[in-house]
Amino acid sequence: MASNVTVQSLLEKISVDHLECSICTNRFRQPKLLDCLHSFCLQCLQELRQSQYPSGTKLTCPLCRRETMLKGSGVADLPNIFAFSALVEEVTMQEKLLEGQGSEIKCQNCDEENQAVSRCMDCDHFLCQECQKAHGRMTLMKSHKIYTLAQLRSGEIVYTSKLRDEVPKCGKHPDQNLNVYCNSCEQVICTTCSVLDHAKHSLTGLPEAVEKCKKKVTEMVQKSERRKTQLSTTMEETCKFRKELDTMFANSKKKLSKKAQQEITKVKQEVAKIQKEEHKLMKEMDRIYKERVTTFEAAQAKNKKEVTQTQHKLEEVKQLMKEASCYEILELQQKLLHNLSELTGKQPQQVPDKLSFMD
């Protein structure tokens, strides 16, 4: 039972939509992020580009049809999402531990293919009983953290991918870690780049830059949440007015028929005339009603679509802010803020309440 809880806790970190590529429907392999915040496997995007614009500088998202401009090496230069790769690795590892309660897992430290009984978190290897003992005898490995498969299966110890601790290297200086944020260029750079290429720019340490970025994103998320609430309120009001229109329409038809019948009773010689007038008015009312219903339904459909798109976009932003590293957050700052800005700029489609009145 505890094992199931462990798997569930891992899967709850991210939805299936984020764990799997929508193109190949397999779990992510080298996930890349488009400007619309949708993620796909590197190879899937490369094949997609060949089918869309083999020699072009843009790529159309297969989910939302939004275009992403490609730079440098094309698809390969799109932002990496190491957080997704790490989560795929963690979930895959947990499933592997649970399959047959881990009986098929072999030792990765020797060539004897003995059944593994534990895992060394420092070596990132499964160990058999003999290799585990060898670890304990070697001075350099005595400090390594070794946990049994039972501990990993039960959830007592949760496997964490080393990708989460990976520090990106500078493209210009491969031996340098990215550890400075240039506010002027809005990018993460290394110390050498800060001296050679950004000396006159506004520079900030990563912790401070991440906090500022998180604050900006949080503010935009709040604005987007308020817009979603506004859309939902407008939809509720539109639904209310539509119901009022239906009621007024029904009552008006009843009143009209009643009046017609009264006139027929009073003046029999004018029956034909009155019935003809009734038919004419009914037809006109039907026309007006249908026009207004069309207006209400169009407004509802547009607002519903906006709510859905807003919700999906917010989920993408929240997931990225939750799972992405500080480096990725800063690299994606403009994309995040741009997407959220688009959400806050749209206004809900409203229908005048006077259209619900009919008599």
UniProtKB/TrEMBL annotation:
<dbReference type="GO" id="GO:0008270">
    <property type="term" value="F:zinc ion binding"/>
</dbReference>
<dbReference type="InterPro" id="IPR000315">
    <property type="entry name" value="Znf_B-box"/>
</dbReference>
<dbReference type="InterPro" id="IPR017907">
    <property type="entry name" value="Znf_RING_CS"/>
</dbReference>
<keyword id="KW-0862">Zinc</keyword>
<feature type="domain" description="RING-type">
    <location>
        <begin position="21"/>
        <end position="65"/>
    </location>
</feature>
<dbReference type="InterPro" id="IPR018957">
    <property type="entry name" value="Znf_C3HC4_RING-type"/>
</dbReference>
<dbReference type="Pfam" id="PF00643">
    <property type="entry name" value="zf-B_box"/>
</dbReference>
<protein>
    <submittedName>
        <fullName>Uncharacterized protein</fullName>
    </submittedName>
</protein>
<dbReference type="InterPro" id="IPR047153">
    <property type="entry name" value="TRIM45/56/19-like"/>
</dbReference>
<dbReference type="InterPro" id="IPR013083">
    <property type="entry name" value="Znf_RING/FYVE/PHD"/>
</dbReference>
<feature type="domain" description="B box-type">
    <location>
        <begin position="165"/>
        <end position="206"/>
    </location>
</feature>
<dbReference type="InterPro" id="IPR001841">
    <property type="entry name" value="Znf_RING"/>
</dbReference>
<feature type="domain" description="B box-type">
    <location>
        <begin position="102"/>
        <end position="149"/>
    </location>
</feature>
<keyword id="KW-0479">Metal-binding</keyword>
<keyword id="KW-0863">Zinc-finger</keyword>
<dbReference type="Pfam" id="PF00097">
    <property type="entry name" value="zf-C3HC4"/>
</dbReference>
<feature type="coiled-coil region">
    <location>
        <begin position="250"/>
        <end position="291"/>
    </location>
</feature>
<keyword id="KW-0175">Coiled coil</keyword>
<dbReference type="Pfam" id="PF22586">
    <property type="entry name" value="ANCHR-like_BBOX"/>
</dbReference>
